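Handout for the seminar on molecular recognition.
Each group receives one record of this type.
Step one: identify the two inputs.
Step two: read the structure output and locate the region that could contact zinc ion.
Step three: write two sentences on what you found, then compare them with the reference statements printed after the record.
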Amino acid sequence: MNREFVPSRLDVTGFAEAAATLSGSDPVADYARLSAELAEPASEAQVRWTVQGENRPGSEGEPVAWLHLHAESTLPFVCQRCLAPVSIDLEVDRWFRFAADEEAAAIEDEESDEDVLVAARDFDLKGLIEDELLMEIPVTPRHEVCPEPVQLSAADDDFEEANEARPNPFAVLGGLKKPKGG
Ligand SMILES: [Zn+2]
């Protein structure tokens, strides 16, 4: 039996039961919250993802739905040193376990190493992919070596130029001391 699974409205329990796999490659523009974090529009950038479902026995032998998510993208963020765009690789590789309801998910999430989510027949997989990629963005993205002189030294250059424009105080002093008719 072939079932169609829709990433934006995923039947998590059915997906795990069928041990199904879904994958895709979407323009980053499809992910509004992620796009809002970028240094510049990245029309070529893709979010590539694969999700696998799996049922595992729970504490009383009952089937528990698990999902494995792998997602990756290379996106331009603002370098916190030079403020120019810097290309950063984001990668998510994580298991999620599904609980029957909100309450069970909250309790189980406290107790377990893996993330526990609430099972739904219309689970927003794209939302999960976006949440996870957002969490992978470094706090201070930056180039290993910035391509241009950093802002600070640009400011220093301006400062030096301003100094050069001002008359040298010693020259002024010399002028005053210059003997008359010398
Ligand atoms: Zn930089």
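Reference statements: The mean pLDDT is 85. Strands lie at 21-27, 46-57, 63-78, 85-99, 115-118.
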